[in-house]
Amino acid sequence: MPELPEVEVVRRGLIEHAVGRRISSVSVLNDRAIRRHLLGRADFEASVAGHEVLDIRRRGKYLWWVLDDGDALLAHLGMSGQFRVSSTVGALAAVAAHPHLRVRFSFADGGPDIDFLDQRTFGGMSFLPGQAVLPDPIAHIALDPLDPAYDLDATVARIRSKNTEIKRALLDQTVVSGIGNIYADESLWRARLNYARSTAGLTRPVVRRVLEAAREVMAEALSVGGTSFDALYVDVNGDSGYFDRSLAAYGQEGRPCPRCGTAIRRDAFMNRSSFYCPVCQPKPRVRR
Fold first, then answer.
1. Which of 148, 245, 272, 285 does the annotation list as catalytic?
2. Does the annotation count 3 as an active-site position?
3. How far is the C-alpha of 59 from the C-alpha of 124, rounded, in Å?
4. Residue 205 bears catalytic tag
5. What number of other Cβ atoms are within 10 A of residue 39's Cβ?
6. Domains detected in the chain
């Protein structure tokens, strides 16, 4: 699933190509793409059409289009969702050209359409009247390390108050948002901390070191367009990021640790994997 840097790359692309434009029409081709909009396809198309896009904002892994009249268009990319600037203009002249086109936004200026593509249809959108400041469905999500209002000390305190493993805390979007499996593993590698360490036993400086590493690694990923393992994680122009070339731990099982040369290991973790260096990130001792 795209994480903070990948979603932020999409947000910046949408700011360039959507902000300041008025939506003339919306065409929904697959109802799953708007399943969170409970009033259905016709209402979604009619509600969104006619609005001007004022801004594109993000909270964690969610995006929302700020529309005039104080309304919002909330979007989540899911596993494979993409916003793409279309190479065609007009109602659905080239729908057959892309089998994963789910929603098309056309604009009054006659410029390029913006398409929502989603191969696995886990992503989706909903129209939320009067919720432009912060949509209700994501109000519970914590700020992320790249947000200007992010409070590092408060996040440190929240993590230390948890009785869980440090990686589980990093993935808890109510504690700190935007960090997924990739950047959790990379942050813990940089901080020399094993994913299974208990948060209750970590000092403030150690937790701070992990969170500072998270901010650092995600900023670096953002600067190169994020991490793209395949053609699904791309920007609005279809271009891939290349932070995968800089990964030290995630997906590197069997390869030498860039710091000490020991082979990176992989453990099963929450129906996914954790990658770590057994020397730089020793596992916590098991109490007998």
1. 272
2. yes
3. 15
4. no
5. 12
6. 4-138 (3.20.190.10), 152-276 (1.10.8.50)
